[in-house]
């Protein structure tokens, strides 16, 4: 389960980076902002999993 959540975090971060980059390239501020938000969501999910790992071991 934890590996699954870590994978989801990485996917969210990657998708967010792509959205942000495309938004910046085409001048779409909304898409760029969505990308940053998605990256932040992935970062938060990843941080949560790291905390869980600390308390497991």
Strand residues, percent = under 5%
Largest sheet report: none
Indicate the mean pLDDT.
93
Helical percentage: over 70%
Q: Give the beta-strand count.
A: 0
Which stretches are low in confidence, meaning pLDDT under 50 for 5 or more residues running? none
Find the structural class using helix and strand composition: mainly alpha
Radius of gyration: 13 Å
List the helices and strands in order. Answer: HH
Q: What form results from the Cα inertia axes? A: elongated
What does it look like?
With 57 residues, this protein is mainly alpha-helical. Helix content is 93%, strand content 0%. The protein contains two helices and no strands. It has helices at residues 2-26, 29-56. The chain starts with a helix and ends with a helix.
Task: Kindly list the characteristics that best describe this protein.
single chain, mainly alpha, elongated
Summarize the structure.
By secondary structure, this protein is mainly α. It is built from two helices and no strands.
Strand-helix topology:
Blueprint lengths: L1 H25 L2 H28 L1
Helix pairs in contact: 1-2
């Amino acid at each position: 389960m934890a590996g699954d959540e870590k994978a989801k975090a990485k996917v969210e971060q990657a998708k967010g980076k792509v959205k942000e980059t495309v938004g910046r390239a085409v001048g779409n501020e909304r898409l760029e902002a969505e990308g940053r938000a998605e990256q932040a969501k992935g970062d938060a999910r990843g941080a949560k999993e790291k905390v869980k790992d600390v308390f497991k071991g």
